[in-house]
TrEMBL record:
Coiled coil feature spans: none
Name of the protein this chain belongs to: Metalloendopeptidase
Cofactor note: Binds 1 zinc ion per subunit.
Entry cofactors: Zn(2+)
Alphabetical keyword list: Hydrolase, Metal-binding, Metalloprotease, Protease, Signal, Zinc
Keyword Membrane in record: no
Organism in which the protein naturally occurs: Labeo rohita (Indian major carp)
Enzyme class: hydrolase
Residues of the active site: E165
Annotated signal peptide: 1-19
Record Pfam families: Astacin
SMART domains documented for this protein: ZnMc
Binding positions for Zn(2+) per the UniProt entry: H164, H168, H174
Amino acid sequence: MDTTASLSILLLLFGISVANPVRKPEPPAFVPIPGNVDITTKFLETNKGSSERLMHGDIVIPKTRNALYCLNNNCFWKKNSKNLVEVPYIVSSSYSSADISVIQNAMSTFHNKTCIRFVPRVNQTDYISIEDKDGCYSYLGRIGGQQLVSLKRTGCLYHGIIQHELNHALGFYHEHTRSDRDKYVKINWEYIPTDKASNFQIQNTNNQNTTYDYSSIMHYGKTAFSNTVGKDTITPIPNAAVEIGQRQDMSNIDILRINKLYGCV
Ligand SMILES: *[C@@H]1O[C@H](CO)[C@@H](O)[C@H](O)[C@H]1NC(C)=O
Ligand SMILES: *[C@@H]1O[C@H](CO)[C@@H](O)[C@H](O)[C@H]1NC(C)=O
Ligand SMILES: *[C@@H]1O[C@H](CO)[C@@H](O)[C@H](O)[C@H]1NC(C)=O
Ligand SMILES: [Zn+2]
């Protein structure tokens, strides 16, 4: 056996994947949502029939604690001695290594542009558990102990959706529920079913002096929860043509807000 072969076997034994020139190429780690579907349409469709009690489409309501009270620093993740904010995570064994690389690539945007560090959990008490459950959803902020981030294999493993759910876990609400949203979007209540109206309720958000961001990854799309085909529930004002509900990547303002909220400098 030559050295290369024995080295490969050794690496495989340790579970390390080595680049093999004859293997089929891996799917790209950056997976955009296919087709002309915005982020809300995609995850609301995926979350239909989810067993969790979901607020605003994809935020889990804790059974023991009200997620709405995320106003004190208790629900944020803590900085370590190096001024980095560690968010320990574990991932379910039902994901493939390609799935995991999509998740890790979405995390790498946070690592590259903010002081947030998603780190594999060792023994930390508070951590997120990324699991292939029945939809794309997350708790809001750090709730203490293990907390679920559900990323269903079929429907949620997209760069933008992963970032969206991780942003909830960091403590961010949806942009269209911001305290000052009525200046920037009109909510068309006539197309919103009564039992879905709470998804459009204004929250007492800390806007951190950042401008309203139509391009936020946390903004719902125009037709979110609409009960009438062709009718929008959210209309940007004054210019109704402004795009909302983008699904590709965090915006510069999304990144700025993380940096402000967590005091990354
Ligand atoms: C983050 O930076 C690393 C190292 O430069 C790079 O390989 C990776 O693609 C970046 N991630 C994103 C999502 O831009
Ligand atoms: C985790 O392990 C480290 C090193 O062994 C130890 O110092 C630390 O107290 C442990 N933390 C918890 C939460 O158990
Ligand atoms: C927002 O700006 C005002 C006035 O410049 C300042 O007093 C306040 O501390 C700022 N708030 C935040 C959260 O940065
Ligand atoms: Zn959401």
